[in-house]
Amino acid sequence: MAVIASMYLKPTIYLLSAKDYMLPCLNKELLGLECPGCGLQRSVLLLFEGQFLEAFKMYPAIFTLIPFVLLLASSKIFSAKHLNPWIIGLGVASVGLILINFIIKLIP
């Protein structure tokens, strides 16, 4: 029983220590304003913890960026031309979500 519990707790312990190694946003520290990428690291961490709604609230573009990066990498590895419309669509959606989220964060 203890072995099974330790198997499930190891990822949690790792994720708790991952918070100590997150990169600070220099834009936020120097200018006091969040950049368009603020929240991406925390959102990925929330995804690993299984908190999908919180990850979306933190950084809405996370759910378009993940398939975008996967499709982009697979199209380069396998030279799949039929993925180009999907890559373009996910890229446009990601940029749009990032900009909308950034503008909403700027409004006081």
Gross geometry: globular
Secondary-structure element sequence?
HHHHHH
If you compute it from the alpha carbons, what radius of gyration comes out, rounded to the nearest whole angstrom?
A: 17 Å
Distance between the termini: 51 Å
The total count of strands amounts to 0
Major sheet summary line:
none
Q: Give the percentage of residues in beta strands.
A: under 5%
This entry's quaternary arrangement is single chain
Q: Which consecutive residue ranges, at least 5 long each, have pLDDT under 50? A: none
Number of separate helices: 6
- Mean of the pLDDT scores? 82
Q: How much helix, percentage-wise, in residues? A: over 70%
Structural class: mainly alpha
Count up the domains: 1
Layout of strands and helices, then pairs:
Elements: H1 2-18, H2 26-31, H3 40-48, H4 52-58, H5 62-78, H6 84-106
Helix pairs in contact: 3-4, 5-6
What does this structure look like?
- The chain is mostly helical.
- The chain has one domain (2-106).
- The chain is built from 6 helices and no strands.
- The chain has helices at residues 2-18, 26-31, 40-48, 52-58, 62-78, 84-106.
- Helix 5 packs antiparallel against helix 6.
- The N and C termini lie far apart (51 Å).
